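Please, structure for the following, as tokens.
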Amino acid sequence: MGKLRDFFTYPGDISGRRKVRTYIRVTFFILVALIVFLAVALYQQAQERRAMTATKPVVVEPSPTFTPIAQPTPTITPAEACPLDPSDWTMADTFPDDVFKRIEPVCVYDGLARAVAWALAIHEGYSRQAAADALGFDEFPMVRMNQVTIATNLQGPMPVEVYYVPPVPNFTEWFFDGAGEPAVSFALRGCFRTFTIVGNEKQDWGDGYPVVCKLSMDVEAINVLMCLDGHCYTTPYPPARLFVLYGYMGNGNWTWLGTQNDLNLDIDDAQGMQSDRLAISDLHGIVPWDAAWLTQTYQLEMQSLPENWQGFTDDAEIQAIMSAINSYLAGETSP
């Protein structure tokens, strides 16, 4: 027992009081520190458990299955009809300060193209009536006029003389080149309104046609063959560029007003003329109107030439044809 006491203490003074040894004190302090540390750690763990118990757990909901919402079928609205009233058209510049304009929207040219198709067909061996029937015309898209007032860049509106093709229903013509192929092409040069505003007054000079268009008509033929009432005649034809006028009649319809008398150009560069037709047509957003276009658009190909057409050179035949034409015209104009 005395040994155990001596292990922990030792005599401290003469009075006999004992003191705790130093290493015992150190060990005691270390034990106390460990106890305090352990108590603190246990307290913190207890607090964390309470916090976890008090906190509402987060429930992770499964992602909902996506079901596409059925979209209503869109109502198909028909394309807006092409405007038939010329006041709804825009006359846009093709060349600066030129009276000959480009019509917008371009669909306006559809009716004009159909009228030009008739002019192409009657130069490819279709009778006037057959061409009208094939293209759905109740009447020939042409009028008989001697004069048409047109816009000019320098002189304002001025009249020009025109001539018209004979409207004899069964009259047929072929304009063809050396290979026997059709040789007439049209290209749009521009259009103009047929009124002038002077002050606050509108002066109308269009002979009832609110818009007139001018087209070039290139005849790159070598021969022309005409037939009427059993008579046929062939004659050489010099290549030339002519200029024709079309007037708007309303309701999408156009008519051939005639071919200018005073404006014919010789064709000495066929390739250059073709390039010009392509360029000017492209400026208007369309294509040249020629035999290939007629076939593609309306399935009308040139009618076959009569056999032995080269031998139809008797002057009596052309006289008979002209007499029949004049007789028809006289009958139309007689009361």
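The chain is about 30% helix and 25% strand. Confidence is low (pLDDT under 50) at residues 46-78.
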